[in-house]
Write a structure and sequence with these properties.
GO terms for molecular function: D-ribulose-phosphate 3-epimerase activity; metal ion binding. It is built from eight helices and eight strands. By secondary structure, it is an alpha/beta fold. Strand 4 (92-96), helix 4 and strand 5 (117-122) form a beta-alpha-beta unit. Helix 6 (186-192) runs parallel beside helix 8.
Length: 237
């Protein structure tokens, strides 16, 4: 049986934009070819920084009615914010399993019941096998390739082993990577098996974001096609 085709999706990290022009920057990224927006929500507890919450997301949704919104919830109590984010028009709610190890399945269920897709995220220090028991409850797994909550970090090459393991175990799973993703690193991510990419400064800071997104998409599609061909060749008839 042939595997379903993996789709490349590039999500600019709104965190790296000018917050005073959040609406303008978000629309500019979508107009440049972004598949949807990745909104980092930080509470100052799970990570030391603070960004914005559901009121800002609600405002964006009131102005941008058709785009897909993913919130990356870097918060200590993800269950608390499920309903507010759903009411604000979020499409996918991605949370860290490290924050609620005893209730991950409950949070997944609540997210889905609230009408959102489920994303589960892993910090760099968390073993990838920790997500095994939750894959059936999620639509996507996010592998952090930098420490959550900070910008300007170095690309963690060893995180590609996590991506590679996930792709081998779950050929049809949506796998997202976040942290120092740009033209120089996206090939390594795609070759490991990621198909969803959160890119910050490389896109936000570019003179021509559309050209950067297009370049990265071409790189990813080439790698995904190679993965797909390899997968088909390995299918037992």
């Amino acid at each position: 049986m042939a595997k379903s085709k993996l789709t490349c999706k590039i999500r600019p990290l709104v965190l790296n934009s000018n917050f005073s022009e959040l609406l303008h920057e978000s629309q500019r990224l979508l107009d440049s070819g972004a598949d949807y927006l990745h909104l980092d929500v930080m509470d100052g507890h799970f990570v030391p920084n603070v960004t914005f919450g559901h009121p800002a997301v609600y405002f964006l949704r009131s102005k941008i009615d058709k785009a897909f919104f993913e919130t990356h919830m870097m918060v200590s109590n993800p269950m608390q914010w499920v309903r507010p984010m759903a009411d604000s028009g979020v499409n996918q709610y991605t949370f860290h399993i490290e924050t609620c190890q005893e209730t991950v399945v409950d949070v997944c269920r609540k997210v889905r019941e609230s009408g959102m897709k489920v994303g589960v995220a892993l910090k760099p220090g968390t073993d990838v096998t920790a997500v095994e028991q939750y894959v059936d409850h999620a639509d996507m797994v996010l592998i952090m390739i930098a420490q959550p909550g900070f910008g300007g970090q170095k690309f963690m090459t060893d995180m590609m082993n996590k991506v590679r393991w996930l792709r081998q175990q779950y050929p049809e799973l949506d796998i997202e990577v976040d942290g120092v993703v740009g033209p120089a690193s996206i090939a390594a991510c795609a070759e490991a098996g990621a198909n969803m990419f959160v890119s910050g400064t490389a896109v936000i800071g570019a003179k021509d974001p559309k050209a950067v997104i297009s370049q990265m998409r071409d790189t990813v599609n080439t790698s995904l096609q190679q993965l797909q061909n390899k997968s088909i060749c390995c299918v037992e008839l």
